[in-house]
Amino acid sequence: MERLRPLLSFSYTALKSNLSELSSPYKLNFAVTLKCQSRCLTCNIWQLKPKGELSIEEIRELASKNRSFKWLAITGGEPFLRSDITEIVRAFAEASNLYMLTLPTNSLCNSGIVLSKLKEMLERGVPHTVITVSIDGSEEMHDTIRGIKGNYRKAISLFDLMHNMQDEYKNLSVVFGYTMSRFNQGRFMETFESVKNELPYVTCSDFHINIAQNSGNYYRNALEHIAVERSAAELELSNILSMRRNRGITDAIEGAFIKGMLYFVRNGRPPLRCRSLDASIFMDSFGDIYPSIMWDMKIGNVREADYHIGPILLSEAAAHAKEMIRSGKDPSHWTSCEAYQALIGHLPSLL
Ligand code: SF4
Predict the structure, then answer these.
(1) For a pocket test of ligand 1, which of 32, 34, 36, 144 has the largest count of ligand atoms closer than 8 A to its C-beta?
(2) What is the pLDDT of residue 48?
């Protein structure tokens, strides 16, 4: 029963957030750095030279003053470029009753260092950690989209090493993250087969799917040419859905996420009302707070609020954003940073 307590508390909060307004968000989407060694065609983050990102002391203060988080969703840039990444996780794990830790990697950091940092994170006692290894194509396609020769081989090798850790660390799940864009449209099967050729144990359900979207505050892109064509996306997502196997609740949620993506592609709007500012917020590496990762509408900065998020959520800017969400005037997106919070409360209707 003791081991089930974090899961029950997490599930209760996630369901409650779909029925009534929470007093504070339970998920923090946190871009810990904008530094990145990739050169992705779908994103401009790598072109930035970030200065003045939150220090570990500031992050510790923030974590200690905002203890409601049950899900820490770290993103970047490349999170492992922060030498203090384990300290960041520790700060939130010690301050909040975290149930879930999620983070991506582009596989370009030294794999020995990444694995030792990951082990340290796993030993923090967060019940569920999901790491996503980015893969956007077969070898040549992946290296072209990501702009780094040799990246595909590194991704395959790192995935395999992390996959082997799952025997020892039962709180670890490793998936591939595939971002569907104009550059790889119609080529998921080719990617899947190429990965399977290297790692025969991989199934379609080991892929987390995203579609490339524009975001001024996150990807720093306004790159209309990245969007996958609607008909190609519909066909590909339908194929992926037919190939997936549900091995449990996590796969069921992931399947519902892809179904939601198909709806989004077909209708130009998400299937469920966004839970931003209630269930989740997005904070960039400078402490700027936004409703969501894809909505370029800053509502405050934690440095100006003495590292308390509460007052920012009570600001006029936040009220305005909440009203836009309520009236359906928020920008339409369907991303893993925001969709899962809405999905968890509506899972039965989406399966
Ligand atoms: S998509 Fe991710 S890995 Fe690629 S440049 Fe942007 S932050 Fe880096």
Answers:
(1) 36
(2) 87
Query: Are 38 and 104 spatial neighbours (Cβ–Cβ below 8 Å)?
Result: no
Specify if 7 maps to a domain: no
Is the beta carbon of 309 within 6 A of some atom in ligand 1? Answer: no
Name the one residue in this structure whose structure tokens are 């940092």. 117
* 38 CB near ligand 1 (under 6 Å): yes
Q: How much is the pLDDT for 249?
A: 76
- Domain of residue 254, CATH code: 3.20.20.70
Atom of ligand 1 nearest to the CA of 179: 1
Q: Block means of pLDDT (10 residues each) for the chain, length 351 residues?
A: 70 75 88 96 88 97 96 95 97 94 97 97 91 98 97 98 96 96 94 98 95 68 70 93 82 87 89 85 96 90 97 96 88 78 68 56
Residue among 75, 122, 83 nearest 102 (CA): 75
- Ligand 1 atom having least distance to the Cα of 42: 1
Helices (H), the chain: 5-17, 56-65, 85-95, 111-122, 139-146, 151-165, 188-198, 230-243, 249-267, 310-313, 316-326, 336-350
Element (H, E) at 105: strand 100-105
11 domain-assigned:
no
Ordered DSSP codes for 322-340: HHHHHTT-SPP---HHHHH
Give me the pLDDT at residue 16, please.
77
Residue 17 located in a structural domain: no
Distance 73 CA to ligand 1 centre (A): 16
Is 46's C-beta closer than 6 angstroms to any atom of ligand 1? Answer: yes
Q: Does the beta carbon of 210 lie inside 6 Å of ligand 1?
A: no
Examine residue 9 and state whether it is found in any structural domain, yes or no.
no
Q: Give the number of domains in the chain.
A: 1
Domain extent for 319: 24-350
Q: State phi, psi for 147 to the nearest 5 degrees.
A: 75, 15
User: Residues 27, 69: contact at Cβ < 8 Å?
Assistant: yes
